[in-house]
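For reproducibility, we list the full input for the zinc ion complex.
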Amino acid sequence: MAIDSGSISWDFLQKKVDLLFKGEFSSFSNLKIENTTIEDMVQRGWYIDLEESTPFLGEIRSGRRILLRDDLKGYERDLTFFHELVHAYSLEYFGNILMDVGKNIPLETKQAHFYLVEYFARLHRADPLLLRTAISRFGLKPFVYDRISLLAFPELCSTPNEQVLFPFCSPLWKRGILMRDS
Ligand SMILES: [Zn+2]
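The corresponding predicted structure, in tokenized form, follows.
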């Protein structure tokens, strides 16, 4: 599940996670989602379902199903997607879904899990190539809302129906900086 994490700074998260890596969560320090992992997860049957009414922004369900609320957009959608992807990844490859909700889990454990998942969600979302691969392979609509998402989807700046008009889009495009083969 993704809760509102907007108030948690990256600095704060990093410090929390550094401490967790020194303790019982040391094995999670190498939780690195690669482009090939995304492909592997899709091959293993992980998929996204967009849902209108779900109490959470995102959720993992049985059958390798990832639920995302269908009205999420931009950074919120992408961060929620990566948050759920980290839960899914942990479950698939570490055998631990890192539950951050639930009545029977001690608060301290839930918080530790949340910090870990959110840390890796933000870290991975900030990799333009991984963002592109994950959004494309899971069949989600791409959004451009910051420099990272622009690097991930430069072609969105060149269409007649530009989704987001960044003032720096056109000059960059003309100078060929945003050209990439994909
Ligand atoms: Zn969660």
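Residues 144-182 form one domain. The longest helix spans residues 74-94. Both points were considered when choosing residues for closer inspection.
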